[in-house]
Amino acid sequence: MRWFLGLDGGGTQTRVLVCDATGTQAGSGAAGGTNPHHTRAEGIARSFTAAIRAACAPLHLEPGEITAGFLGVAGVTDDAARAQVERLARAAGLAHARLGVDHDIRIALAGGLEGRPGVALVVGTGSSCYGRDAAGRTWQTGGWEALIGDEGSGYFLGREALRLAVRMADGRTVATALRARVFGWLGIQDVATILRRLGQPAITKPEVARLAPLVVELAEGGDSAARAILEEGARALAELVVANHRSLPTGTGPEVVVTGGLGTAAGMYRRMIYAAIERELPQARVGPPALAPVAGAVLLAMERAGVVPTPACLAHLRMHPIS
């Protein structure tokens, strides 16, 4: 029997799915983040090992029995990063598997549209956009990390909330409930202590991103400042999609799948993202993913082994949670 492994490695969590060619026998596992820009090699190795072994355990498999695997990992955009991830995955037990490695937006598109051409917009801790046409040509927009990118992401929402809370505390803009809620989240009473809180130790990108649900909650409760943050985030995400489609048209009515933790969470922000894309690209068909990114990674693993998934296999893969 042949076994296929998909891995979805993000900034805060790594998911693994292992299944046979029918999709009926499957196991899953999870561990910590594996983005090489935020996690050291030893941390990535530990997460790979834990998640892979957890997924293999219910199937009574050893990782060395995996036929083919595909690893979609956030932050993997060049050959050096691909080589590092492959080396660490093989050290984690995938010594004999036929492996592929690429960024996580590739698996988001593969899963989201079940292999069809189109555009994937990932909205999670970070953000990125990836298109693939019927000829197999690809184009990436965004995904260049927090310093110069991550528009509309969880990090973006959290950073903007921090920035606005400080402006409110300074008296530079009208205060709303956002200021008190953000300061409460930080565990501080006034702006004089914020530098110590942010810098000792330095607050991380995933920590900032964990502010995003608070921003959405405030916006849904009517906070004007929080709503403005969401509106700007949705506008920036739509810009990524429009630029991607302009650079690589994937059809006159392109399919756009919105995925990632924030992108799939029901609520105001998802509605705003959809509306912003449809406003800027009226012919687009925007929707949620059909399969989880980790299941998209399984499809790419099967592709590497020359296996074409059957409709029944796809139906089984749809049973795995999107987020």
How would you describe this structure to a colleague?
With 323 residues, this protein is of the alpha/beta class. It has 2 domains: 3-112 and 291-317, ATPase, nucleotide binding domain (Nucleotidyltransferase, domain 5, 2-Layer Sandwich); 115-289, ATPase, nucleotide binding domain (Nucleotidyltransferase, domain 5), CATH 3.30.420. It is 45% helix and 18% strand. It contains 13 helices and 10 strands. The protein has helices spanning 41-56, 79-91, 104-112, 154-170, 177-186, 194-199, 205-209, 212-220, 224-247, 261-264, 268-280, 293-304, 311-317; strands at 3-9, 13-20, 26-32, 68-73, 98-102, 118-123, 127-132, 138-142, 255-259, 285-287. Strands 3-2-1-4-5 form a 5-stranded mixed beta sheet, sandwiched between helices. It has a 5-stranded mixed beta sheet with strand order 8-7-6-9-10, sandwiched between helices. Strand 6 and strand 7 (127-132) form a beta hairpin. The chain is globular and about 65 Å long. The protein starts with a strand and ends in a 6-residue tail after the last helix.
Topology (elements, then pairings):
Blueprint lengths: L2 E7 L3 E8 L5 E7 L8 H16 L11 E6 L5 H13 L6 E5 L1 H9 L5 E6 L3 E6 L5 E5 L11 H17 L6 H10 L7 H6 L5 H5 L2 H9 L3 H24 L7 E5 L1 H4 L3 H13 L4 E3 L5 H12 L6 H7 L6
Parallel strand pairs: 1-4, 4-5, 6-9, 9-10
Antiparallel strand pairs: 1-2, 2-3, 6-7, 7-8
Helix pairs in contact: 1-2, 3-12, 4-5, 4-9, 8-9, 9-11
